[in-house]
Each structure stands twice: as C-alpha cells, then as structure tokens.
Amino acid sequence: MIAFVEGIVEDVAHDHTVVNVNGIGYRVYVSGTTAYSLQPGSRERLYTQQHVREDAITLYGFKSRNERDLFVRLQNVSGVGPKAAMTIVGAAEVDAIVEAIQTERVDFLKRLPGIGQKTAQRLIIELKDKLDDLGTPGIGGIVVPAGDSPLTGDSGLFDALLALGYNEKEARAAVRKLSNEAAEGASLESLIKKALQLLAK
To answer: Do 158 and 175 touch, CB atoms closer than 8 A?
Structure first.
C-alpha cells in the first residue's frame, strides 16, 4: 500500500496530476480543487489511497491525511464509490462535511455535487458515529484553512472555474456571489469550494 507520494509535479490536468518520484512518474487522481492548487515544477506531498481492480491500479491523492481518511470512510456508505467520494471531499472542507454529518444537516449535504436526499441520509446514518477523529467540532460552514494565501481580486476564481470546465456565465455568477468573501481575504481554495457548492445547486 502506498501511503503517500512526494516529488516534483510534472503535469496537472483537471482530475489528476503526475508526480515525479526519483525518476518514476506516478499518476495520481485528485479533486478539481486540489488540481488547481498544484503547480508544475513544485515539490508536493500527496497522501494517497490505492485502489486495485482486475483491469487497473489507481492512486487517489489528497493534500492532508484527514481528506484521505474521509475519502476512505465515505466509500463505506452504500452507493458511494471513489468518484463520488472524491467529488465530496473536493467540494468542502473536511471540518464542514464532518460537522454536517454529525449534526444531521441534510440541507448542507444535498448541496454537495452528486448528493441527493437518500445519499445524504445514508451518510448520516452510516457515518454519524464514525468520524470523531476527523475535523474540528463546532465549525458550521466552509473553513478558510490557516496559512492559505488570500485571493487578491476575483480573477483567480474566475479562471479556476473556467479551468474546471464551467462556462463564462456560470463562472461570473459564482464570482459575483462570492465577491464579499474575496474582499475579506478568503483563500482561493476556499472560494473554489464555495463556488462548486453554489454551482451544484
């Protein structure tokens, strides 16, 4: 089992990156938010989860252990596979997802991409008492991670949404709705996650 990969980012696409580890290129699948935060030539460590099937061995990567651990536990829920779990983890902070499940906030969970009423209820029923070691209690929304660089202006968010496949109309609408958060110094990564929630409605 590969617990993490650390090396130079060689290439970045909307759903994966290639990390050069001592001359070997590892393709690691990541969320759109993580993909946008990676820069070719930078040195990164991604905590990984390895999936083995008859026809493929796939690595999923995350910027933190908590993201990876939440990704693994989400897949214990009926109907949630790796793709859906990755989308959920990429759409909101771990703290916010954990709190929503533990406090049975179905409305919050339904705003995550691909999550309907039934899946939201299954997440709560099957995971409510199994996430105590993840997240920080008492955080009720999307968290701005400590140490993230603030976004100066909104062009970064607009460009990020275009890179993730949204059209200009959708990107402009999201930027407009999040203009106050951007002005208050929210990080680009935080704004992207909020925008993904808005656009998923």
So the answer is: yes
